[in-house]
Write a structure and sequence with these properties.
By secondary structure, this protein is mainly alpha-helical. It is built from two helices and no strands.
Length: 42
């Protein structure tokens, strides 16, 4: 059981890190104005 427990804890930690990275990237305020400016020029 300890092998499975370690694997489960590792997967939960990995999922948390990936989720935090995705939220951080999506929350960047500089991303949206750049997209809006490039769409307005075209």
């Amino acid at each position: 059981m300890t092998d499975y427990s370690t694997a489960i804890i590792g997967l939960i930690a990995f999922t948390g890190v990936v989720s935090a990275a995705v939220i951080y990237v999506l929350a960047q305020p500089s991303d949206l104005p750049v997209v809006k400016k490039s769409q307005a020029r075209n």
